[in-house]
């Protein structure tokens, strides 16, 4: 099947339409309460005046780290000067949150890299250090131990102090992750708490100093709260499907080419895909398309050290992924988007689904679970509902690592947000699943191509309300 041709064509079309701001007839979404949360009954006694009061905490002012998903980018510069990963063309969600008084940063991590590598990259950028992927990991996957050097450029100098000798003033962070950024956040939270015994042993054996990320003597969590948006905690069957049908390579190329096609990429240099440690850095004068071809033809592409391995539903039980645990002192949240309607056992895209996501929504919505035993735990209608790239079931949280915690994230003020929240505080050490955002696909949930900018602004305002209301 020639996925690449029509995916690329659709991507181009959509970007051109959006960039040129040509008015496209768009169906008006049916107003529905977000989050699937029950409306508070009028008889209900007035709840506390803030989420922090409701949860009986003083709240916190921890800086929040935003981790992007597959084929994404951070805030080093908006892609091609115009597109914010967090907000798209219409809004800059990070600036909006800064104007509300929050400290937020958005590192730039490998858009096609494994969760392990992406976690190492976030750590290096936050603390201003040389990216250290680990001695054992480098040996296992036959790549260089070190990556980009961020020495002197800490995104969060106060957080970096935690790992200096004589540090006594603990500085924690909150994390927000979208898509692959969900499991990346969970991996980083695990490593910041437990480190890695394998890495420590390898450092001792080699007689070298280990990255503090891998220290196993850490005694408390450095991550207070985590919020996963459309996270791929149990993978996405899109990856398994495209792998089985030989379409994965085309998807990668189409995604990138679609994103860069709106601009003359040659004038802007090559997108650093942060694969230099695999010997896959960009070459001078090489065009981006050729760079992608070289990457997809390399040994790395078929290895177990990349995002495609991590995104496969079938691979979730592999020890390379299954070692990650929920940290008992950290409070996790998750939210899923849904852009499909379930009818007679299959889920099909709604008319408001972004045109490039519709085919994937259908792939997931009609996917048979016969060869994926990981899906047997779900009912058919359960795993087929999706946001155009990820199953709702996957976005709730890791297997057995979540509970329902309905909240209305589309609330327009803090009063309705508080009224929609359960009266008991969210549980630590598990994902508190706040529910589905209806009529919200995988791109709309980060503000891409969404006509209703107000909705996404409310969602992020509320997410920060939630994270900053947890006890410090
Ligand atoms: C990283 O950068 C710092 C500061 O510029 C420099 O002193 C150090 O030698 C660099 N390390 C490597 C391995 O390049
Ligand atoms: C934890 O282990 C690292 C690496 O062995 C060491 O440098 C550091 O001082 C230790 N920290 C504490 C608090 O013992």
UniProtKB/TrEMBL annotation:
Keyword Nucleotide-binding appears in the UniProt entry: no
**Entry GO MF terms:** hydrolase activity
Keyword field contains Hydrolase: yes
The organism's superkingdom is given as Eukaryota
For this UniProt entry, which residues form the secretion signal? 1-21
Q: Which SUPFAM superfamilies match?
A: alpha/beta-Hydrolases
Gene3D superfamilies of this UniProt entry? alpha/beta hydrolase
- Offer one Pfam family short name for this entry: Lip_C
Q: Where would you find this protein in the cell?
A: Secreted
Where's the Lipase-like C-terminal domain?
Answer: 60-405
Q: Cite the entry's keywords alphabetically.
A: Hydrolase, Lipid metabolism, Secreted, Signal
PANTHER family from the xrefs? ALPHA/BETA-HYDROLASES SUPERFAMILY PROTEIN (PTHR34043), ALPHA_BETA-HYDROLASES SUPERFAMILY PROTEIN (PTHR34043:SF3)
Its BP terms in the Gene Ontology are: lipid metabolic process
- Please provide, in alphabetical order, the Gene Ontology terms of the cellular component aspect for this entry: extracellular region
State what protein this is by name. Lipase-like C-terminal domain-containing protein
């Amino acid at each position: 099947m020639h996925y690449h041709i029509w995916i690329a064509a659709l991507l181009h079309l959509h970007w051109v339409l959006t960039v040129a701001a040509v008015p496209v007839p768009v169906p008006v979404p049916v107003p529905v309460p977000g989050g699937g949360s029950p409306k508070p009954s009028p008889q209900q006694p007035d709840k506390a005046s803030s989420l922090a009061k409701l949860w009986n905490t003083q709240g916190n002012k921890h800086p929040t780290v935003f981790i992007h998903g597959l084929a994404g980018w951070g805030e080093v510069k908006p892609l091609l000067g115009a597109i914010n990963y967090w907000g798209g063309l219409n809004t800059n969600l990070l600036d909006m949150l800064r104007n509300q008084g929050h400290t937020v940063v958005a590192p730039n991590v490998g858009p096609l890299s494994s969760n392990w590598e992406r976690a190492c990259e976030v750590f290096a950028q936050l603390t201003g250090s040389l990216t250290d992927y680990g001695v054992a990991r480098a040996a296992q996957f036959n790549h260089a131990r070190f990556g980009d050097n961020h020495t002197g450029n800490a995104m969060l100098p106060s957080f970096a102090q935690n790992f200096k000798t004589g540090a006594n003033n603990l500085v924690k962070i909150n994390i927000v992750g979208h898509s692959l950024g969900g499991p990346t956040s969970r991996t980083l939270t695990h490593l910041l708490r437990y480190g890695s015994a394998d890495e420590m042993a390898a450092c001792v054996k080699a007689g070298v100093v280990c990255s503090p990320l891998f220290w196993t003597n850490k005694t408390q969590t450095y991550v207070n709260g985590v919020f996963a948006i459309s996270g791929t905690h149990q993978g996405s069957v899109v990856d398994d499907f495209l792998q089985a049908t030989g379409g994965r390579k085309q998807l990668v190329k189409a995604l990138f080419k679609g994103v860069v096609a709106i601009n003359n990429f040659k004038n802007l240099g090559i997108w650093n895909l942060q694969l230099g440690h695999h010997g896959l850095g960009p070459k001078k004068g090489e065009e981006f398309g050729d760079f992608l071809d070289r990457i997809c033809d390399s040994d790395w592409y078929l290895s177990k050290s990349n995002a495609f391995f991590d995104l496969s539903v079938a691979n979730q039980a592999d020890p390379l992924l299954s070692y990650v645990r929920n940290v008992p002192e950290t409070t996790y949240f998750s939210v899923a988007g849904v852009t499909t309607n379930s009818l007679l056992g299959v889920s099909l895209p709604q008319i408001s689904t972004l045109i490039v996501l519709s085919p994937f929504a259908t792939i997931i919505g009609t996917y048979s679970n016969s060869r994926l035993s990981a899906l047997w735990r779900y009912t058919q209608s359960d795993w087929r509902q999706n946001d155009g790239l990820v199953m709702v079931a996957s976005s709730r949280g890791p297997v057995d690592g979540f509970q329902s915690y309905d909240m209305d994230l589309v609330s327009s003020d803090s009063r309705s947000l508080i009224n929609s929240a359960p009266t008991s505080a969210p549980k630590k050490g598990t994902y508190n699943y706040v529910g589905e955002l209806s009529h919200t696909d995988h791109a709309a949930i980060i503000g891409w191509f969404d006509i209703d900018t107000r909705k996404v602004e409310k969602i992020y305002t509320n997410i920060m309300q939630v994270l900053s209301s947890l006890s410090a």
